[in-house]
Specification:
Elements: E1 2-3, E2 31-34, E3 37-42, H1 57-76, E4 80-89, E5 100-110, E6 113-121, E7 127-137, H2 140-147
Antiparallel strand pairs: 1-2, 2-3, 3-5, 4-7, 5-6, 6-7
C-alpha cells in the first residue's frame, strides 16, 4: 500500500474539511493506494455524532464523497465535482468504534463522467455504508489552471 501525497497542501486558502491538514475542525484524512483501490482509515469521536453514539449520516456521506474525489485525482490524474451521489446506510456506524475503513474504486466512465463505488466498514469489517458517486471530471488543463492540481503522486514516486 502506498501513501498518497496531498497535491494541495501548499496551495493558499486550501482548507478542505476532509483532507486539509490545516483545517481546525477537519477530518485530516490521509489516503493510500492498493492496486485499483483507494483506502482511508478514520477514527470517529463523539464530535461527529448524530443520534447517541452513531456517526451522523451527513458525516458518513462526506467521508465517502471525499474518498471518491481522491480516487478521481489519483486514478484519472485530474479533478472533478460530484454530480450525483447515492448513499445506502446499511448498519449503524458507531462513534464508539475505534476505526473505520473507507475504500473506493472506479467502476465506470462515460466521456467525462466517472462513476466510483465507495464503502465504509467498521473495525470488525462490517459494511455500514456504501455510496455510488458520479463525478464530472475536468480537463487536465482546467484542473491545473483553476484547481491548482498538478498530479496526485504516492510516496516514493
Amino acid at each position: 500500500m502506498k501513501k498518497l501525497l496531498n497535491p494541495w497542501v501548499d496551495v493558499p486558502n486550501y482548507n478542505c474539511i476532509g483532507c486539509s491538514p490545516h483545517h481546525p475542525f477537519g477530518f485530516h484524512l490521509q489516503f493510500y493506494e492498493d492496486g485499483d483501490t483507494i483506502i482511508c482509515h478514520w477514527k470517529p469521536t463523539q464530535n461527529y455524532q448524530g443520534w447517541i453514539n452513531t456517526v451522523h449520516g451527513g458525516v458518513q456521506a462526506l467521508l465517502l464523497d471525499e474518498i471518491c474525489g481522491w480516487t478521481v485525482s489519483r486514478m484519472m490524474q485530474t479533478v472533478g465535482v460530484t454530480t450525483r451521489m447515492e448513499t445506502k446506510y446499511l448498519k449503524p456506524a458507531l462513534t464508539t468504534d475505534p476505526l473505520f475503513t473507507l475504500r473506493a474504486r472506479i467502476t465506470g466512465q462515460k466521456r467525462n463522467i466517472v462513476t466510483i463505488h465507495a464503502t465504509l466498514t467498521n473495525s470488525e469489517g462490517v459494511l455500514c455504508t456504501e455510496a455510488t458517486c458520479d463525478y464530472f471530471t475536468f480537463t487536465k488543463e482546467k484542473s491545473m489552471r483553476d484547481m491548482h492540481f498538478r498530479e496526485c503522486r504516492a510516496e516514493g514516486e
